[in-house]
Amino acid sequence: MKNLTKSLKGKLIVWYTGSILLIAVYFWFGVHILSIPYGSEIFIALLILLSFVGFLLIKKITESLSALTKKVRTISSTNLNERLTVEDPDNEIGQLALSFNELLNRLEDSFSRERQFIGDVAHELKTPLANMKTGIEVVLSKPRASNEYRERLAECLIDINDLSTTLTEVLDLAWTEAHVNQKLTKKVNFSKSLLELSEIAINLGMTKNIEVNFKITPNIWIYGERQKLSRAILNIIDNGIKYNKTGGNLSVILTKKEETCILQISDSGVGIPRADIKSIFGRFYRGKNTGKTSGSGLGLAIAKSIILLHGGQIAVKSTLNRGTTFTISLPNAL
Ligand SMILES: Nc1ncnc2c1ncn2[C@@H]1O[C@H](COP(=O)(O)OP(=O)(O)OP(=O)(O)O)[C@@H](O)[C@H]1O
Ligand SMILES: [Mg+2]
Fold it and tell me: Is pLDDT at 228 greater than 80 in this prediction?
């Protein structure tokens, strides 16, 4: 009974059944058995009393709802830190306010992550742009020999390449976010896509004399976007070469296990410090082991979001100075 009267629905039920019972008892006992005088006057008074109780109950509900609506209207992206006051967490309006506060928590969290992301992107674009600007200003400040112009242009090209890579990465991230709850229905021959990547990987490996081996079980199909998947895998292969030792090796192995395919990308590189492991999939995170290598720290964040979008998972195991293995599992197409 105590629980019943805590909720607004319970209170309404108690009021409604209580009123009917009271009227029935009044008629049966008071009017028929006792034949009390002024029966109809008392009945009208009883009806007025019960309606008044009902009115008070509904007034309380609408007042609480109006107060809630008024407060909700004042909340926008600029004051997402505000919360609704929960007067009674046991009734429906209290529950509504609690759920709304939870929604605000999630929104505030995602807004602050977006803000951080925009700041990081701006920072990432600002550095090469500033480099180019000062470089060009210096070279234009007085007449120079043609080789000096050539040198400056070559430096600008490096910065432009960095800018273009960052922009492609940001677009990839935007693509994964726009497709989060969409079902991917295109069938992709994953084995074939990986073999197509082998040539790029071998060429990348040559720059550091790294032996690249591909062992691909043929005809493994999955549902997804071939280009995006290739980009995700290439980001991991790129790391396997970038953070490898000269003369090291890199292997890419694709196997099938029941309804899943497993892709293992292992390198013999510098390894990832234990403290970095939990952060490497974060946007713009670059580990302490990066040395002089260039990069924006978006590669693994993109790879992970593309793999998750394909219903897959990614895990990493690493030993310092021995190497790293990324294991990706993806559901096979039927
Ligand atoms: N195979 C690997 N071996 C050692 N460290 C790695 C490896 N892969 C990733 N890492 C670590 O994880 C960090 C994040 O990797 P991620 O690919 O996201 O960024 P990045 O390689 O630094 O830059 P980008 O890929 O955007 O050019 C790297 O900076 C590096 O510290
Ligand atoms: Mg990378």
Answer: yes
